[in-house]
Description:
This protein is of the alpha+beta class. It has helices at 2-5, 14-24, 26-40, 57-60, 64-83, 104-107, 121-131, 150-156, 161-174, 188-191, 229-259, 370-377, 397-401, 642-682, 693-698; strands at residues 133-134, 158-159, 179-186, 271-277, 288-291, 296-299, 305-312, 317-320, 341-343, 408-413, 416-421, 430-437, 445-452, 459-465, 470-475, 483-488, 497-501, 510-515, 519-524, 531-538, 559-566, 578-584, 589-594, 605-608, 628-631. The protein is elongated, with a radius of gyration of 37 Å. Residues 271-344 form the CEP76/DRC7 peptidase-like domain. Residues 405-689 form the Dynein regulatory complex subunit 7 MORN domain.
Amino acid sequence: MEALEEKEEVEQTPDDVISLNISDYLDELELDAEEASVISNESDFDWSSIDTSNLPSSYKTNSRQEKKLLQLADNFLQQYSHLCPDRKPLFIHPLNECGVQKFVSTTVRPTLLPYPDMYYWSGCASFVSDYLIMEPLKCPVTPPSSLYSPTTIVKYQRGNCFDFSMLLCSLLVGAGYDAYCVHGYATLEMCSLDQTQEVCPRLRKPPEVLVKEDPNKYRIKYPLEPKSQFELQQKAKEEEEAKSTQEEEREEEVVEEVEKPKRDPLHGLRVHAWVLVLSGKRKVPETFFINPFTGNNHSTKDECFLGIESIWNDKNYWVNMQDCRKGCKDLSFDLSNRFCWEIMFPESDEASQLPTESPKNSTDELVSDPSNALEHWGPCRSFEMPLSWVDRIKVSCKEYENPFPRGKKVILYDKAKQEKWAAYANADGLVERLTVYADSDRTEELEVKEWFEHRKDLLYMREVNHQTQLITDHFNPGHPLLLKAHTYTSLEPETGHTVEFYHKARVDGLWKRSETATEMTEYFEEREDLLHKRHINFGERDQGMEMAGGTAEANARPIVQIKEYFHRNPKKPADEDVEERVFKVIDDVIQLTYHLEVYDIIPSKVVFARVIGREKREGEIFLSRENTVKYQPWSSEKHKNMRYLYNLLWELRAEQKDLKQLVRDSEAEMLNILTVRENEEANIKLTVSIYSAAQREQR
């Protein structure tokens, strides 16, 4: 393809460019092979040693209809090579594992595997990328000479990009998608499965949705400040000078970059295969590509895809007739457009759009006569594609649940490393780990995230921040203690813990509790009394009391202050609706702060203080105007009544006693949580899912 050969200023033919690149950069190709061997971490697999004696007869011979198909394909290929001499040879009928030529469309075997995830493209793509070991093409600028059946690829769990694409396309077509295998060209990173320059998908931030605010056309327009024209001119001159200096610096940087041999000498020539999914079927809203090596979907305008030669599925074969100088971003994927795509077997009675007139000096007997070309082309219009020669693709439950052939899969990203394991491969239920580094060499760890499955304690994710030394455990719903998340540095008590709960399953509506050695803060939601926060301050224990080995009541920390915050209750007047109440337990002071009205500036307050010089007796409530301070400018007469204040103080004393007990219960609950979590981590147990057939058989 002219666009993909990237002609230099020196006049050279495309074949000369390819041969020159291959001969001059042989060392680079050897390095690519070494990189691929490092990725595989195994010795090269000898495909010539595989056993084909037990394969069905359809693998070893061609039926009468298949032989006719190969003749028509040869006819099409001859016309194509004659009429498009500058194009690369098509990938039409490579050899299979038995050395028999097979048409690529008959190698696609539509299969729907009996697993829920395999009904969706994401599940199929993820399975193929995890199940197979990537092998690079022997020659990066030409397609392979052989294409094995998807059943053989599944059996040996390895293959090149064409093998990946054929297996993935077979699964997608079987699941009802309008999917096609693509023979084209891609970048070095995509062909060699190099993701070290990409951001890990788990670290990508979702795009921010900008909310446009409606401008108020009635707002006041203030006059602009006067500006000096001379100052503006001077500022413009300074900006121009700064731009000129920046451009010079950029030119110097560009010169330095050009001197460095970073450009791929085979850019635009590297052959790659991937999968195309057209919109329409299975409610796919937009056409997209799938890279079979990674299982990720890409836009058809992605710059990593540099061109397309042909596509095929189990029904037909199409040749791209569009210009690919700008990659695939301007391509039309309307396969019914005969000017964009040349179909091998037209589904209607329309004739092919390939020109049938040959040059005057042509010596090709097949297409020297236009009528002869049409005669050879005619049978293609009425030909029906034979069924696939490949057996049904089968994947056992054990193979599906343990897709990684080496036990685990390691993917290197930019400043990150991702590791994946099969379920039940690790005793602690670990299935994935993501390590984030501070540098591109991946030497200094910043953060580690781990994902778990089938744990009895319902732990599904753990985050470890190496900068703050904080560990955060996340739990699925159903934990006996209703845990949702737990942040800590150590499981020792009073070392700093933040626990989140599933508040809808709790009676008190508590969703978060943070505790240190000196304070505790609790957050609530959806409570009838509209309480949303409680803060407790603790004092220091006596020197003779030790925390380790004692109960919460025996080693209780003295409560200094309890502070509660309430939301606004619209059913009450603002000066009767408490917003904040403070119980200073040691100082024996109770303070109430009420909500503000719309027109208020200072809130109403009531303070009950201790009477100086009077001994406190248990059960006694002493109230006088000396120990009561209030500010209620809009209060009713009942707030001025001492009887009302006495009853209010009596209720607050009772609530203070209950609050102290609630604080002790919270301390005991935190100790219980830490004890339970310590036991769960010491004795990790995994549950066997009723849907895991392999684990049930093993058990």
